[in-house]
Amino acid sequence: MIVKSRFFIGIVLLSIVAIFSGACTQQQSTPLVIYSVPELKYLLFTNFNPVFYVDPDFYPIAREGQEEKNALEQFNTIKADTIEFSAILEYLGLPNKTEYTNEEILLVYREHKKLTRAVEITASGDLYKFVLRTGENQGERIEGTITASGKIKVLKREPSFNTYPICLTKGTLIDTPGGPVPVEHFKKGMAVWTVDNSGKRIVAGVVETTVTSVPSSFQVVTVRLDDDRTVTASPGHPTAEGRALGGYQVDDTLDGGLVVVVEHVIYNSGATYDLLPGGSTGLYWANGILLKSTLVTN
């Protein structure tokens, strides 16, 4: 009887210890939070601020009312991505409801642009790799990893001149006295054909060159003339007339030729290029079409 009682008491004590131990274990262990990709992007934005990206509603040409128009047109598509939409609502402090005001739709659209364009994030095993830029003009380019639970590790951090790319694509041929030369091969002092104030074609030395990194999703515009001259550049690149290349339409006139094709395409070569000829005009021939350098200061 005594043995049975001791055995019963032992079982009770073991049960109490087990319950108490389990309770302690539950108190000590914190559930692991797993974030969605849009939520991870917001964590990156919080840690690296301000992020830099090219806003398609204001570059290369800002048109009044265009952002509001695009916000209304794209809202249903944005809303259909329930994971991103939920993250945006939480960030903005908006409820999930049936109808939204135009002001709320615009706020959601702006967050969508930021999430889509301000950071590149790709899955790599149990991690996500990310690349983003911070600050306008003289800023930084940052590479790193972030776990699904939000732990960030910076792998590379380097100075970066962050600007809106308005330059020529790689391989664009610039006219020189010695024949056409790809724009990416130019260095200061090299000879190039330009135009003086009277419109006369003259030789000048290259005063400055630039290389501007662009994201993998960057779009450029190809303009083809009826005489088969074709140039591809950032939509904001200026022509000799001072117009943005992306603003031309079929049947417009460019450098004496009739525009027959205007096509926007994805550019994956990583950088755009430009040069500044000596003289007062900043003009040069790119693939035989007279354009203006983006490096002109006046």
* DSSP helical segment count: 5
* Elements, N to C (H/E): HHHHHEEEEEEEEEEEEEEE
Proportion in β-strands: 25-35%
Could you give the order of strands across the largest sheet?
1-2-3-4
General shape: elongated
Instruction: Please report the distance between the alpha carbons of the first and last residues.
Output: 106 Å
- Spans of at least 5 consecutive residues whose pLDDT stays below 50 are 1-21, 23-27
| Major sheet size, sense and barrel closure | 4 strands, antiparallel
Q: On the 0-100 scale, what is the average pLDDT?
A: 87
Helix content: 25-40%
Question: Which class of secondary structure composition applies to the elements?
Answer: alpha+beta
Beta strands, count:
15
- Rg, please? 29 Å
Helices and strands, with pairings:
Elements: H1 2-28, H2 37-47, H3 66-80, H4 82-92, H5 102-117, E1 119-124, E2 127-134, E3 137-147, E4 152-162, E5 173-174, E6 181-182, E7 191-195, E8 201-213, E9 219-225, E10 230-233, E11 253-254, E12 257-266, E13 271-277, E14 283-286, E15 289-292
Antiparallel strand pairs: 1-2, 2-3, 3-4, 5-6, 7-8, 8-13, 9-10, 9-12, 11-12, 14-15
Helix pairs in contact: 2-4, 3-5, 4-5
Describe this entry's structure for a reader.
By secondary structure, the protein is an alpha+beta fold. 27% of the residues lie in helices and 32% in strands. The protein has 5 helices and 15 strands. The strands form 5 sheets. The chain has a 4-stranded antiparallel sheet. A 4-stranded antiparallel sheet has the order 10-9-12-11, with no helix packed on it. Strands 7-8-13 form a 3-stranded antiparallel sheet, with no helix packed on it. A hairpin with a 6-residue loop joins β5 and β6 (181-182). α3 (66-80) crosses α5. It starts with a helix and ends in a 6-residue tail after the last strand. Mean pLDDT is 87; it is low at 1-21 and 23-27.
